[in-house]
Amino acid sequence: MTTAVREVSVFGDAIAYFNDAADLLELDGGMRRILTNPSRQIIFSIPFQRDTGEFEVYTGYRVQFSFARGPAKGGIRYHPGVTLDEVTALAFWMTWKCAVVDLPFGGGKGGVTCDPTQLSMNEVERITRRYAAELVEVVGPDKDVPAPDVNTTPQVMAWFMDTYSMHVRQNMPGVVTGKPLEIGGSRGRTEATGRGVTICALDEMAEIGLRPEQTSIAIQGFGNVGKYAAKLFEDRGCKVVGISDVTGAYYNDEGIYVSGAMEHVAKHGTLEGFKGGDKITNAELLTSECDVLVPAALEKVFTPETAANVKAKLIVEGANGPTTPEADRIFKERGITVIPDIMANAGGVTVSYFEWAQDRAGYFWKESEVNQRLEDFLLTNLHEIRGIANSRHATLRTAAYTLAIDRVVKALKLRGIYA
Question: pTM value?
Answer without folding.
Answer: 0.93
